[in-house]
C-alpha cells in the first residue's frame, strides 16, 4: 500500500492501525478531515489519534471499514459482532459517523 | 468509549476551547502566520462538540452551541468583514467582496465540520436549518443585504465601460455575479431581482441612446451592421460573465431598442432602406435584414410588405415592357424572373 493511500489510526492505548484511505473514508468524520482544504500537506503522513476509543473497538471498526467496502460491491456477508462489544461499538460508530 | 468515566464539560470551558480553534481559523483566513490545523486539532474540536452534545441534561448544550455557531459568524462579519468592505469602492470593493465571500465559504466548511454533530440529530429534531445554511444566511443577511445595491451599480458601470470599448476584468465580474447566484442557495431570485432587472433596464437605456443617434446619421445597411455587432457582443458578454438565463432577456431588450422601435424609420430610409436595397440587388444587406428582423415579433411583416410592393412594381413594369415590345423580347423577361426568386432564398 502506498504511503499516500494509507491512514494511521491510533487507539487510546497507543496501538497503531494502518489502513487504506478508502477504508477510513467510510467514517464521515475521518472523511471530512481528510478532505478539508489546505490542511494536510500531500507528503504528510496522515495520523489520527482517538484517545477515547480502545484498541479492541478500534480494531473492530477497521474490520468494519473493510467489510463495508466489500459489501458495497454486492457480496453479501454478515459482519460478526461479539455481544460484549456492542454498546461501545455503537457509541464509537456514532462518534465517527459510520 | 467509556462514557461513565467522562468528565462533564462545562459550557464556559468547552466554549473557551472552541473559541481558540475559531480564532485560529480566522487568523488563517486573514493570512496571518498561523500553522495549519493538524488532525489532532481537528479531532479535539470535533470531540469537544460531540461530548458537549452527548452529555446528560442539564449539560446537553446543543441549543447553546447552535446559537454560538451562528454568533461566531455574526461577530466576525460585523467586526472585520463589513468594515473592510465599507471602506472600499467600485472595482476595489468588488475584489474585496469576492475575497471575503471565498473566505466565508471556507469558514463555513471548517466550522460546520467541527460542529458536525449538531447536523446529525439536533437540527432534525428541532426542524432547524442545517449548519451550512446558517453560515451562508449570516453572510447574506449582514453583508449582501447591505451592499448588493452598491455592488450592482459597480458591476453595471463596468459593463457600460466595456460597451464603450474599454478593457475590463471579466473574471472579476464573473466571480461577483456568481455570488448573486450562490447566495440564493438554489433559487435565482437574488440574481434576478437584485442584479438582472437593473442591468436590463440600464441596457435598454444604453441602446436607446445609441439608436436615437445612429438612426439619424447612419444608412440602413450601416445601422444594421452596428445592430448585428451589438447583438454579437451582448451574446459574448453572457458567455463570459452573465448567467446564461440572462441571454434571451438581454437580447430581447437590445433587439427591441435597436430594431423594433426604429423599424419603420429604418426600412423606409430614402436612399438606403429596404426598397433601395431590393432595387440595387444588395443581397448581403438584405440577408442581414432578414436575419435581424426575423428575431423580433412580427419583425418581418413590414419587410415582406415592402418586398411585395417591390415585386408587384417590378412585375407590372415587366408586363408593361412585354406588351410594348415585340415578341422577340420575351427572352429578357425569362431572365429577370430568376433574379426575383433569388431574394426568396
From TrEMBL, chain A:
UniProt cross-references to Pfam families, sorted A to Z: Skp1_POZ
Domain SKP1 component POZ intervals: 6-66
Keywords attached to this entry: Nucleus
Pathway: Protein modification; protein ubiquitination
Protease found in the keyword field: no
Main location class: nucleus
One CC-aspect GO term: nucleus
UniProt cross-references to Gene3D superfamilies, sorted A to Z: Potassium Channel Kv1.1, Chain A (3.30.710.10)
Gene Ontology biological process terms in this record: jasmonic acid mediated signaling pathway; ubiquitin-dependent protein catabolic process
Domain of life: Eukaryota
Subcellular localization(s) per the UniProt record: Nucleus
Family the entry assigns: Belongs to the SKP1 family.
Entry protein name: Elongin-C
Source species of the chain: Salix udensis
From TrEMBL, chain B:
GO MF: ubiquitin protein ligase binding
GO biological process: ubiquitin-dependent protein catabolic process
Domain Cullin N-terminal: 23-327
InterPro entries: Cullin, Cullin_N, Cullin_repeat-like_dom_sf
Pfam families: Cullin
Origin superkingdom: Eukaryota
Gene3D superfamilies listed in its UniProt record: Cullin Repeats
Family the entry assigns: Belongs to the cullin family.
Name used for this protein in its record: Cullin N-terminal domain-containing protein
Taxon lineage: Eukaryota, Viridiplantae, Streptophyta, Embryophyta, Tracheophyta
